[in-house]
Predict the 3D structure of the following.
Amino acid sequence: MTRLSVVVRSLVTALAALLAVVSASATAPAAPQPKAPSDFVALRSVDPTILEEIRYFTPHNFVGERIDGYRQPLCILTRPAAEALHKAQTKLVREGYTLKVYDCYRPQRAVDHFVRWAKDLDDEKMKGEFYPRVDKTRLFVDGYIAEKSGHSRGSTMDLTIVRLPARPTRPYVPGRPLVPCYAPRAERFPDNSVDMGTGFDCFDTLAHTDDPRIVGEQRANRLLLKRTLEGLGFVNLAEEWWHYTFKSEPYPDTYFDFPVSMKSLTSAP
């Protein structure tokens, strides 16, 4: 056998081995994603009238990009929490309002994304809107970011009230000038929510539910949300007017990591 033949045969053998590896990689099944327990549901399957504006599926949040684990703009909750929220919606609709959720179940991988972002002190592209008066080095100390979130247990949601008929919210356009989340309503990013005194996810003491500087209509709106939800078994996080947890949550000590997607629901078709 000539030297050239040996070289050619070696090249053919090596190419065949490489193609086999590439083919195996292409056909290897992706690692299965974790699934939600059977008592997790899409909120829309319990009450399709509640508005959903899932901010972490979009770049309009304090990080400035879609957050890990948000595959769809979808509110997922444990069924008891969703059914209690339906009761709240029924009461509010009678008064001319509707609920709107900004976030519901949040996978642990999303919380991990927040933690990575908080440790990157050079990334402050959304500071002008969401934390103008907070030094990023204090996000953990001041409790704005933590390594665990009650949202990952499936019975916590971030929400507001919208007067009916609901007007559409102007789409967020990345790159436009940012306005502080505590600015007067006419100046900050427009939201079809009633005026709560600050925008959602405002890292500022003005976002504390009972901050004494919030008065008049703004205070009345916060108290309407609080009174309605607390009467149905929810508890508010005092530092965030938008944050509520269903007290009788079925998983008080479990933090889930399945993606926010209909495919994660075992009850989904």
